[in-house]
Each structure stands twice: as structure tokens, then as C-alpha cells.
Amino acid sequence: MKNSDLPRSLNLPVFPWDLLTPYRGTAAAFPGGAIDLSIGTPIDDCPASAKAALQAGADSPGYPAVAGSIQLRRAIVGWARGRGINCINEDSCLPTVGSKELIASLGWQLGIGRGDKVLFPEIAYPTYDICARLAGAQGIAVSHDISTWPRDASLVWINTPANPTGWVAKKNWLREVVSWAREVDAVVASDECYSELTYRGEGPAPSLLQEDICGASSENLLLVYSVSKESNLAGYRAAFVAGDRALISALLAVRKHCGQIMPSPVQTALTQVLSERSHVKEQVERYRRRRKVLAAALEQAGLKVAEECEAGLYLWVFDPADKADENAELRAPGSGADWRLLDRMAHLGLIVAPESFYNARPGSHVRVALCVSDNDIQETAKRLVKFA
Questions:
Q1: Cα(68)–Cα(64) distance, rounded to whole angstroms?
Q2: Distance in Å from the first CA to the final CA of the chain
Q3: Is the pLDDT of residue 327 over 70?
Q4: pTM of this structure
Q5: Which of 65, 70, 209, 285 is the right S-S partner for 85, CB 3.0 to 4.6 Å?
Q6: pLDDT confidence of residue 329
Q7: Domain 7-44+280-384 has CATH 3.90.1150.10
Q8: Which range is least confidently modeled, 2-11, 25-34, 64-73, 369-378?
């Protein structure tokens, strides 16, 4: 084989946000410039305690432990106990360099490959599909109706609260997922990075690993968690995976070979923010206020926030006067109800993300992020008055 054959295709799609370039140009031309509501990147200050912990851990000349420091793993277990999760200990959790790298690589790190099936929600964060593609497996988008899931699947991704829709899984549904997984011997990985971002006073969203959901065992179950959104630490790349001890041990062995290690100062910062949680409540309140203003402005503009959009960092919005195109074969990037709504908002200087980024079928929604400044939220509301 010749070197000229490289690089070979990995069968990856175009990175979705690259498709927004022309709309960014349109939005930038609006008086006052563009307001980017398309990406869920935090803009509020990092917690002072996290910055202090990062500095305290800065003198770290040696390699950190791939498994994470014992202090960090104890903090993860302590966080879990506070969430009603009693089925993990210090040997069944593992820090990751943000959650996205773990989501993208989980399939091949567990040995999944050609001939295997990886399931993920039909409207979902696109990296679950990338997980299947990088493993060489078959990725299959599925609905919330568990009875329709292929019973020969190797891995199932669930996401609650869901990105982009804001849907929150109920406990009974999660119990059914656990029962199904154990019956067919599939691994379920639950991405719960938005679980604290709930706005109806009910506390965090239910977790797959809660004792009243999975019992006393985490067999075949993994929880993926990130502090990027709740603690404004996306720049730190701080997350973890916890659950089935045998699965965690297998991941640890692979990650040692790959050098997938969270830097020591970040481990110190993550330990701090998992142990001291007052900043999370403060951040949730910020998002609650922004969400209320933005949702009201969108409704007054004649748009609708989807009924299932209960939590998370986004509003899932559609124009009731412009329904999704029924013929998927005629649909291409830049066409369809979601793209039309994106274009209309871009002409007001507002950049949002179309449903096409998250759904292989025709859609009419756009995802509107809450993570812009209070001033930008107010300016967005003013611009939406002109929406027609």
C-alpha cells in the first residue's frame, strides 16, 4: 500500500456548523452585528473557586494519572451520592478530556466494530452518530419507543435532558431502558451533561444510575457527565464517565495506551466544582432569566417553543406557519422549513442552528442557545419584534 493513499476517508459528514458560513455573513451585515445563538458555549465567568483550584494545581511537573487522582474520584463519588447514585465507587469512574472525545470514541474503545449496531436518538447531538462511524459500526437513529429498538444492538446512547430538544426522560422510561438493556445484553451510555439545567423547580433531571431506576447495580450502564455548561468550564475540558466497573476498567486500559489524560490542574479544578455546588445554582438562575425573556420574545414574534422543551441550554423553536417538508429526498442543506427559519433570523442578525444538524429527516425547528450575555438576550428580544 502506497503512502499516496493517505489520508483515506473516515466516512465523516461535513462539520455541521461550517454550513452556517453564509448565514453568518448575512447576520454580520445587520446593524449592530451578529448575535450567535447557534453554539452552546458558555460566556459567563468561571467560578472563582475553580480558578483558584486550577492555580493551586499548576505546579504539576509529572504525568497525571489516567484514572484520575483519588481526590477527584472521591469527589465524583460524593457528587453521585448527592444525586441518589449509590452503585459506583472510586474504581468505577474515570475523568475524560471533556465529554465529546469520550462520546466520539466510546464505541471503538469498547471494541465495537463492523457488524455491530449503535443506537442513538432520532433527533440528537451529532457526535453519537460519529461514535458509530469511527468504530466502523452501523449507526441507527431510534425513537423513544423502546419496543422498536433493534434487539441485537451493542451500544445505545440516550441523552437527558436532550440536546437539542430539551426533552427530559421520566423515571419509568429510564427503568424500561435498564430492563431492556439487561434483557438483550446491550450497553447503555447516558449523556446527562445538562441534568442540572432544569427550570421548573424540580431539581436535577433523573439519572440512569439512580438507585430507584437501576437498583443496586450499574451492570451494562454508563453515565457521561460534564461540568462545561453548569460551571462555565468548557475551556477546561472537564468531564467524567462512571458506571459498570468492568466497562470502566476496559476504558482505562485503552486510554492508558492512548494517553487520554486530564491534566493535573484541571483534575484539581474538577474536584473543587464537584464538591462545592453553590455556583451551579447561580448559573441555573442566570439561564432561567434569559430563557424567560427569550421564550416570551419568540412567542410574541409568532414562533413557538416545542412543548417537550423543558430543560437544557437551548430553546427548540419552530414557526407554526411553515411546516416541515414531507419529501426527504428533495431536501438538501439550505432548504426546508428549518433552513428558511434560520435564514429569516439571520436577516435580523441572529444566528441559530437548524434541525438538520440533529435529524436525518425533514424538520422545521431551530435550536436557540441561551448562552449569550444578558444584553444580547435583550437585544435579541428587540430584534424579534421585527420578525415577520
A1: 7
A2: 58
A3: no
A4: 0.94
A5: 209
A6: 47
A7: yes
A8: 2-11
Q: Do domains 7-44+280-384 and 48-275 have the same CATH topology?
A: no
Q: Can you read off the three cell numbers belonging to residue 252? A: 482505562
Which residues are bridge partners to 117 per DSSP? 138
Q: Kindly report, residue by residue over 365-388, the tens digit of the pLDDT.
A: 999 999 999 999 999 999 999 986
Domain boundaries, the chain: 7-44+280-384, 48-275
Report the chain's mean pLDDT, rounded to a whole number. 95
- Angle of CA points 302, 308, 309, to nearest 5°: 70
Instruction: Judge whether 315 and 175 are in contact, CB under 8 Å.
Output: no
How far apart, in whole angstroms, are the C-alpha atoms of residue 372 and residue 377? Answer: 7
Query: pLDDT tens-digit profile of 129-149?
Result: 999 999 999 999 999 999 999
Whether the Cβ atoms of residue 279 and residue 273 lie closer than 8 Å to each other: yes
Q: What is the spatial distance between Cα 370 and Cα 366, in angstroms, rounded to a whole number?
A: 13
Q: Which of 156, 300, 301 is nearest to 224 (CA)?
A: 156
